[in-house]
Amino acid sequence: MILIVDDDSAVRSSLSFMLKRAGYEVKTAPGPREAMDMVRAESPALILMDMNFTLSTTGEEGLTLLKQVKVFRPDVPVILMTAWGSIQLAVQGMQAGAFDFITKPWNNAALLQRIETALELSAAPKDVPEEQAEGLNRSHIIGKSQGLMEVLNTVARIARTNASVLITGESGTGKELIAEAIHINSQRTKQPFVKVNLGGISQSLFESEMFGHKKGAFTDASADRIGRFELANKGTIFLDEIGDLDLSCQVKLLRVLQDQTFEVLGDSRPRKVDVRVVSATNADLRKMVSERTFREDLFYRINLITVKLPALRERREDIPLLARHFADRQAAVNGLPRTEFSADALNFLSRLPYSGNIRELKNLVERTILVSGKQTLDASDFESQYQRHDEPVKAAEGTSFAGMTLDEIERQTILQALEQHKGNLSQVALALGISRAALYRRLEKYKIAVSD
């Protein structure tokens, strides 16, 4: 049974009609007192709850009711309803334990999808049997460490739902592979999986890239363009480096995630889209929210489920397996004989700090195979390549940062890294602990000309 709590009879009637047509049993309550009587008497499968029940718009009554419901029925998912202008109320509700929120007027398809997701997740067992996680299509995810298996257990539990997922972890931990695993194990597996590197899209091009444009919408719009959201319709959109998105673009993104509609530039007609959203970042979004550089309402919209990837140094037992995988792939791609590793070589690889995580290990293994030309690699082969290429960037001897601005220090550090790694942008990005896209943005910002 789904319980609808709203003082507006028209809202109760509209929602009841929609949910009954979708096959749900529905009960309604006009206010907190009636709602609590029902909640005490029986446990609803889900509650749709308005935030305001009087002329006041503070939302205090809604928050109080939510807290009371959570005392009596802590496992019942609650979806809050509020006006777009009062979205901060919904954020407070999420902090108090609500499952999700929608804004009025709502989009029926989007609301039904969120209700279905809430019911699926609340019914799903918290602990997935190990054999179920092993049954996942893991694609190229290599490893059997406890940290990785916990991640795959979560993927097994949530893949078939439409829940939005936020994948966190350091640069190079394999966030994109986890996003792909979520997609290929979902009910959308035969539909598009569209990857978007938000760190590589400038503010001026954001709307055109994400929502598309009509010919003539702006000066350089010489033809119609289909946006990324439309390309991902019925499938999954992967928003990588979402922490790099500036505040003005965050608002535009929130709009389409909120009601799954968007407007193509040059066309005022709203278009509907059905997408599952998976995001990723190596930034601390909670800290960014507290610093007001990332919108709290967007934060709650994208992380219904959070998957945190362990750093490679936290899953060292997987390093030999990963090294073997990268070596075999390198042999297949370049038509080389199979490379073997001595015990000392594997011990050496397993002891490294890996500030660049799996990406760093992959680069080291592939580079050593190509440079050495040997069929059996020992520790000295890896050591020579690691020392030459993977040492952290150090300030030039005698360099002083006194009196320099933060931008000047960053520019100087990039220049030193470029010199140290002879302009190899992959190695520079790895040494600086940032993605190539983030490095490109900084090169453009500081007008540093390079050839990759």
UniProtKB/TrEMBL annotation:
Membrane-spanning residues where? none
Provide the coiled-coil residue spans. Answer: none
> Which is an annotated GO molecular function term of this record?
sequence-specific DNA binding
Response regulatory domain location, by residue?
1-119
Q: Name one GO biological process term.
A: regulation of DNA-templated transcription
Q: Any idea where the Sigma-54 factor interaction domain is?
A: 141-370
UniProt keyword terms in alphabetical order: ATP-binding, Nucleotide-binding, Phosphoprotein, Transcription, Transcription regulation
Superkingdom of the source species: Bacteria
Q: Which Gene3D superfamilies match?
A: 1.10.8.60, 3.40.50.2300, Homeodomain-like, P-loop containing nucleotide triphosphate hydrolases
Q: State the CDD domains in the record.
A: AAA
Q: Which residues carry this modification: 4-aspartylphosphate?
A: 50
Protein name, UniProt field: Sigma-54-dependent Fis family transcriptional regulator
Give the organism the record lists. Bacteroides clarus
